[in-house]
Amino acid sequence: MRQGRKATGLYGQDSRVANWRRLGFFCSLSHVQKGEKVKRLSGLIMLCISISICVNPVYGDSLSLSDFVGEPSHLAYSIGNTITLEEDTSGNLGYIYFLNNNYYVTGDAITLSFVYEFTLQPGDSDYLVAKIGNTYVTEILGDNSFGSDELILPGSGSIDLTPYQGSTISLAFGLEIDWADLSYTSVASLSNLEITTSSIQPVPEPATFLSLGLGLAGLAGFRRRYSRKKITSRASLP
After folding, report:
1. Which pLDDT tens digit goes with each residue over 2-31?
2. Distance between start and end Cα atoms, the chain
């Protein structure tokens, strides 16, 4: 009887070895895919932690005008959160200010924003200004010196407060007469005066460190659990 050839078909020994190899390949592929998912999840967790620490939400608070005074008071005054500046009709005053010589800028202050309306009659030519100390931080020229109708200039402005954080300054809003002014009836109003502040200080508070620690601990525990499963699944393969 002739000795038969070693079985290498679909159900032969070599076939079984090949099938085991295929199974091993797909298992390793599955582990690679799971590993990629773990890496992506880890990256997402770290991104969320970074955003929660680094992003500084901003908030707006109305500028308190209680300590501001008018020079002169009958031409520069406030009602609620609106400042009104009226030019001296006699033309004897070259400026009108509403100011606070001891305004404290908090350490988280970013900008001071406002909305204005500048009204000038024919012949008027004046400046609407904002000053910090002797520095002009806003200058708006209203020129109606050659106009025949009333001119109304609406708009908005903002002042950068970051250079003055944590310091006391002289803050003033005013009208200043231009050299070409032939009339003395300008009126300006400033409203919606708002201080934009950052809610998070440069040094993270203890709660931030606690949140970061819990997030990293959870991530480490997840990776250990996945590694343990991976080792167990490999040991179960023949």
Report:
1. 444 444 444 455 555 555 555 554 455 455
2. 36
Answer for the pair 58, 196: CB distance below 8 angstroms, yes or no.
yes
User: Which two tokens mark 224?
Assistant: 């250990």
Q: Is the peptide bond before 72 cis (omega within 30 degrees of 0)?
A: yes
What's the CA gap between 57 and 193, in Å, rounded? Answer: 20
Which pTM was predicted? 0.62
Residues 6 or more apart in contact with residue 156 via CB below 8 angstroms:
113, 114, 115, 116
Token duo for residue 13: 């020994």
| Distance from C-alpha of 78 to C-alpha of 228, rounded to nearest angstrom | 70
Pick from 224, 143, 160, 149: nearest CA to 196: 160
Classify residue 1 by its DSSP letter. -
| Single-letter amino acid, residue 195 | I
Q: Which two tokens stand for residue 29?
A: 């592929």
For residue 128, the tally of other CB atoms under 10 A from its CB is 25
Residue 180, classed as helix, strand or coil, is coil
Q: How far is CA 5 from the centre of its chain?
A: 79
Residue type, 219: L
> How far is it, in rounded angstroms, from Cα 100 to Cα 225?
63
